[in-house]
Design a protein that fits this description.
It contains no helices and 25 strands. It is mainly β.
């Protein structure tokens, strides 16, 4: 149900994303269950994009930190939302030409950003990633985050190469349902995280993007009836490429969705319910009810972006590999509408 609709090649061995001249290695077009790609970007000055986004969601709050280098600027940001008090804080630091950003070519490698306004370290370890983030002025409060994200043995992830053309392409690794533990301090409040009920999501990207991009993305992770469940559902970004970034991860195993996800929502009122379903099959049928809208806009002439990222509850169902329904009941997650001119 879904996997047969497009001829997406599964990659099973280590491979380079780029040829020696920096163009797309056509043999890398496909997807894999593990991070097998070396994102050996070169050339195309000012057009390369490197992106590491982590989010952590517990029953109490959401915290996210991103380190990105878009060649002509480093953009590093962190944000936090307390579900009970509705307290939201976001801090963004921009540096010229990615100054302070260390961003290697592999997924499981250490990423760091050092700046007097905020530090972020995403430290790759044998079976986990440690996330450290500190700022003395996070909305006029002190921020200190220390998380350890666990990678369960044989846990599969979604790794996809998106080929717009030989000079414009993207590799992404979307990793859902990763248990996490640690703590977060915001001002006088301390939040403790347990891997029994807290999950992390990684969005790793390396590529050479079109100048204007538009996408939808939704993700969530939870334990449902004793099963570990994660969803990664995108739209618009991959149109016309023959690839999708859509998958379910159930009990640590990927179900690759080679069909589009249809998003139905009101762009005049993002707080109204969203509806997401697979275009052809009955694999995904979800209703998303937002409870908070994060709006992030920037207009620096050559750099423009507008993000409406919604925090909310998913209800409905997905189907596992045996076609059994997994029922979502008020599962916390995110859905977004994003335009970028980068």
């Amino acid at each position: 149900m879904g996997e047969e609709f497009l001829n997406e090649k599964e990659i099973t061995e280590d491979i380079n994303l780029c040829n020696s001249n920096g163009t797309l290695n056509k043999e890398s077009i496909g997807w894999s269950r593990k991070s097998l790609f070396d994102c050996n970007l070169k050339g195309r000055w000012l057009r390369k994009k490197r992106w590491n986004y982590w989010s952590v969601i517990s029953p109490e709050c959401l915290f996210s930190v991103t380190v990105s280098n878009i060649d002509y600027a480093g953009m590093v940001f962190a944000y936090f939302y307390d579900f009970k008090t509705k307290k939201f804080i976001e801090k963004t630091v921009m540096t010229p030409f990615g100054k302070g950003c260390k961003m290697p070519s592999g997924v499981h490698e250490t990423v760091s950003f050092i700046n007097k306004q905020m530090n972020a370290d995403l430290i790759a370890q044998k079976n986990d990633t440690r996330i450290l983030c500190y700022s003395a002025d996070f909305g006029s409060e002190k921020l200190s985050a220390d998380f350890t994200v666990n990678f369960p043995e044989n846990h599969e992830t979604l790794n996809v190469v998106i080929p717009w053309n030989e000079k414009t392409f993207q590799f992404t690794s979307k990793q859902e349902a990763l248990p996490v533990e640690g703590f977060l301090i915001v001002g006088e409040e301390t939040y403790n995280f347990s891997r029994e009920n807290t999950f992390a999501c990684l969005d790793f990207g390396r590529g050479i993007w079109p100048y204007k991009v538009y996408w939808n993305w939704a993700n969530a992770s939870a334990i449902i009836d004793g099963r570990s469940v994660g969803i990664n559902l995108g739209a618009k970004w991959t149109d016309g490429t023959g690839m999708t970034e859509n998958a379910l991860v159930i009990d640590g195993k990927i179900i690759k969705l080679s069909e589009n996800i249809i998003y139905n929502y009101d762009k005049n009122d993002y707080m109204k319910n969203w509806f997401l379903k697979t275009e052809i099959s009955d694999r995904v049928n979800l209703e998303f009810t937002p409870f908070y809208e994060r709006i992030a806009k920037s207009d620096l002439k050559i750099i423009k972006s507008e993000v409406h990222q919604m925090f909310g509850y998913f209800n409905g169902y997905i189907r596992d590999k045996d076609n059994n329904k997994i029922i979502f009941k008020n599962i916390i997650g995110c859905a977004e509408d994003h335009f970028g001119q980068w």
